[in-house]
Amino acid sequence: TEGPPSCPKGCDRCSEYNGCVKCKPKLFIFLERNDIRQVGVCLASCPVGYFGMRNPEGNNRCTQCKIDNCEACFNRNFCTKCKEGLYSHSGRCYVSCPPGQRTANETMEC
Amino acid sequence: EHPLLRALIKVTLLKHEATGKPIVVEGLFVGGSAGKAEGRLMQYHPLSLCNTSEDERQDGDFITIVKLEHRVPRCLPLLDKARMALDKGAQAVIFDVSDDANAAAELREANSFSRPVVLVEAQGAEDLMGLVNKNEEANVVIEIKVEPKWLHYDV
């Protein structure tokens, strides 16, 4: 069933100033900063630098990657793309590969 | 219980700073937080003040404004939301409580905020949120409203 006509796509409940306040099931709410405004938008997948965190009540939300030197992550602990010049190993980012690990420069992995 | 002090919120769009007349809105200090504060106006979505929120750090002095809505899933008590906003570096927090009848009562129970926390509603809140909707940088000054002292005549 479609949300209220005035709400943006994928949104169940919205308001003029906050944008979306409750997304449709399975979607993630992303709090988008645009200069002084911050509004809620509903996404099927989160932007780079964020991962989708699901919660039992259905208030799924995009949450920032918190892993050092990481640009894109799969979840809170697993980086999928390290910042330029860094090597990735088991979901973490390294300036140089840990001892005992061989460096694969083409894929920047250990 | 001491009466809650009223606040004067003066907002000037940065592009009109030299010539523009500020918009002046009245509010209510809560949590014994009456005092002066100044900074850029910055809106936060109510869901950004939750335990799972990001540490979205702002540069420079800013004043947070949050439009509360009873329909938004409540992730934290309002007192904790106010403290979280101050912990994120806000010089002060303004809550528009027009659409959340319980919010004012809940926030009035607060007793100790480190910096000003102000409630606004009705036309004043609408003026402020209208500015937010313009999405233009604005400077905010919050002060204590000094009530005129009338001489009491015995009649």
Strand content of chain A: 35-45%
Proportion of residues in helical segments of chain B: 10-25%
| Strand line-up of the largest beta sheet of chain A | 1-2
Q: Characterize the main sheet of chain B.
A: 7 strands, mixed, barrel
Helix tally of chain B equals 3
Categorize the overall geometry of chain B. Answer: globular
Strand order, largest beta sheet of chain B: 1-2-6-5-4-3-7
Distance between the termini of chain B: 30 Å
First and last CA, distance of chain A: 48 Å
Contiguous runs where pLDDT drops below 50 for at least 5 residues of chain B: none
Chain-wise SSE layout:
The complex is a heterodimer of chains A (110) and B (155).
Chain A: E1 11-15, E2 19-23, E3 28-34, E4 37-43, E5 50-53, E6 61-64, E7 70-75, E8 78-82, E9 87-89, E10 92-94
Antiparallel strand pairs in A: 1-2, 3-4, 5-6, 7-8, 9-10
Chain B: E1 6-13, E2 23-29, E3 37-44, E4 62-69, H1 78-87, E5 92-99, H2 101-108, E6 117-120, H3 122-134, E7 138-144
Parallel strand pairs in B: 3-4, 4-5, 5-6
Antiparallel strand pairs in B: 1-2, 1-7, 2-6, 3-7
